[in-house]
Amino acid sequence: MPLLRYFAHLPAGKQVLWCYLIWYLVTVVALFDPSPTLWLNSVGISAVIGFALQLSVAKGAQTDRWQTFRLFMMPFGVSSFASLIKGKGYVLVFPSDLQLLLISVAACGAFLAGCALLRRTMP
Fold first, then answer.
1. Bridge partners of residue 91, in order along the sequence
2. C or N terminus of the chain, fewer CB within 10 Å?
3. Domain count, the chain
4. Per-residue pLDDT tens for 85-106?
5. Which residues contact 85 (CB under 8 A, 6 or more apart)?
6. What is the C-alpha to C-alpha distance for residues 70 and 84, in angstroms, rounded to an integer?
7. Which alpha helices (DSSP H) does the chain contain, by range?
8. How far apart are CA 49 and CA 86, in angstroms?
9. Closest CA relative to residue 50, chosen from 77, 75, 17, 67
């Protein structure tokens, strides 16, 4: 139940981050490209940018592990997302394919509704 409690008390900002992840995962599943080059380039960009971001927020020797994970994961997600959607008719981050757009929106909406339901039912 700790996971349910986590989602029940999730602040709005973190809910937005989870929706970003959901949107990304829907896109990855729909447009997956097994090209090792795409994923290795994304890992490389993640390492370079994540390290720079880590340096910019470091407060002494102790850093939050989840924050560090996000600082490296976000550049990976951005670079792989950009590579996956290239030439696929996306406008900004929105697919021109109505079905994919509806799936993405519905997945995020279901997540937010689930968090709201948990917030109402859990102490």
1. 94
2. C
3. 1
4. 999 999 999 999 999 999 999 9
5. 27, 31, 93, 95
6. 20
7. 2-8, 12-31, 36-57, 65-85, 98-121
8. 21
9. 75
In sequence order, the 6+-apart residues with CB closer than 8 A to the CB of 88 are: 31, 95, 96
**Structure-token pair, residue 97:** 């394919």
- This prediction's pTM: 0.88
Q: How far apart are CA 77 and CA 21, in angstroms?
A: 8
**DSSP SS3 for 3:** helix
Residues in the chain: 123
Question: What's at 12, amino acid-wise?
Answer: A
Q: Cα–Cα distances in Å, from 91 out to 85, 111, 117?
A: 10, 24, 32
Please give the average per-residue pLDDT across 17-37, as a whole number: 96
Domain span including residue 37: 2-121
